[in-house]
Design brief:
It is built from eleven helices and twelve strands. By secondary structure, it is of the alpha+beta class. It folds into two domains: 99 residues, no CATH class; 188 residues, DOPA-like domains (Alpha-Beta Plaits), CATH 3.30.70.1240.
């Protein structure tokens, strides 16, 4: 599903009066300045789409309505599904502005109403996710993100599309879209494998291309891949990552205009992207700070956890926001073989379920 052209054109990338665009921000202060648009953008989308779900329309404040829309995204029209998906990417930045205003005792005014700010939800419990002393958690899957700057490099969009087509043809010609908001919630492709049994053999799915938002300063599209697929794809990614075409005289040459970020999914979002990630080619800046919050290793998050909404696990009140927590497998019995990829001359490891024969 493609995002509506009008949404992508009008998606607010520049905050009025500040002149700082998200794709050009390099410091926390600039990110804060550029995030003013996210607050207005999230409220506008909420006001446009909340009437499509009766239970959401009955809520009092836009913050609760936005959460409700993300929880009921499957019930929305196609247009609002795309808008709410994009809004989810902007919500961490909206929360950043809200927290900053709250710390200064200010009230923010939305496009249609006065907004009462909730307290900051940036609780840093990090159960099992403390980088300093917790053991490394189990990796349930990986994300691959292609990133490019649509505003400053006209060739990068075509390069990423060419690379996408080449990768899909090589590994998964029948690839399907991931579940809505699964890039925020699922530890593996839940449309393929309910799990956790056989989670490592879940099929690859793809996320829609999206403008800057969340921790990403640039446009990006992503893929949800399994641990066994990871071993097969990584050598290919390293050998086939997009390179700049021959430089045109008198024009600036861009190196690695399409960046490739690979990170695990353990439930520890901040560590997954900041500490345990890797790049195929030159890295790009990410704003990791908005990923801080109360996260649990090996637990799924409903939507955005304590980054945006109060999803604390309160004793006696039950689980307010986290989904199922999983025990890591103790051992696996797979049949694996090395092969040489004909299109790239790279060696890869291909693993099959014990009941499947290896060719």
């Amino acid at each position: 599903m493609l995002l509506p052209l009008l949404l992508l054109i009008t998606s607010p990338l520049l905050v009025a009066g500040h002149g700082v665009a998200l794709h050009t921000a390099t410091t926390k202060e600039e990110v804060l300045a550029s995030s003013g648009h996210a607050f207005n953008f999230a409220q506008t989308i909420t006001a446009e789409c909340n009437k499509e779900v009766a239970v959401c329309a009955e809520l009092n404040d836009w913050h609760s309505k936005s959460k409700c829309l993300m929880e009921h995204i499957e019930e929305l029209s196609e247009d609002c599904q795309d808008k709410v998906l994009n809004m989810a990417r902007h919500m961490p930045h909206a929360q950043l502005v809200m927290d900053d205003a709250s710390s200064k005792g200010l009230e923010l005014s939305g496009p249609d109403e006065e907004v009462s700010l909730p307290p900051s939800f940036g609780n840093q419990t990090w159960k099992g996710c403390n980088f300093s002393y917790d053991p490394l958690p189990y990796v349930w899957s990986y994300h691959i993100h292609l990133m490019w700057n649509d505003l400053t490099d006209n060739s990068s969009r075509a390069l990423q599309q060419e690379f996408h087509d080449k990768m899909v043809k090589e590994f998964f010609p029948d690839i399907k879209k991931c579940r809505f908001l699964s890039f925020l919630t699922d530890l593996w492709n839940k449309n393929s494998v309910t799990g956790p049994a056989n989670h490592e053999f879940a099929e690859t799915c793809s996320f829609a291309p999206l403008p800057p938002g969340g921790p990403f300063f640039l446009w990006e599209r992503g893929y949800h891949i399994s641990p066994t697929t990871f071993h097969k794809m990584m050598p290919w990614l390293a050998a086939n990552r997009p390179r700049t075409p021959v430089a045109i005289p008198f024009k600036k040459k861009h190196e690695n205009p399409v960046a490739i970020l690979v990170h695990p999914n353990t439930g520890c979002q901040y560590n997954d992207l900041n500490h345990w990630s890797m790049w195929a080619g030159k890295s790009k800046p990410l704003f990791y700070d908005i990923l801080r919050g109360c996260v649990w290793a090996a637990c799924e998050d409903k939507v955005l956890g304590c980054i945006v909404f109060n999803h604390l696990h309160t004793p006696g009140a039950g689980n307010q926001g986290y989904g199922t927590c999983y025990e890591a497998p103790k051992a696996m019995s797979h049949t694996c073989t090395y092969s040489i990829e004909a299109t790239s001359n790279t060696s890869t490891m291909d693993c099959k379920k014990p009941t499947e024969a290896v060719v």
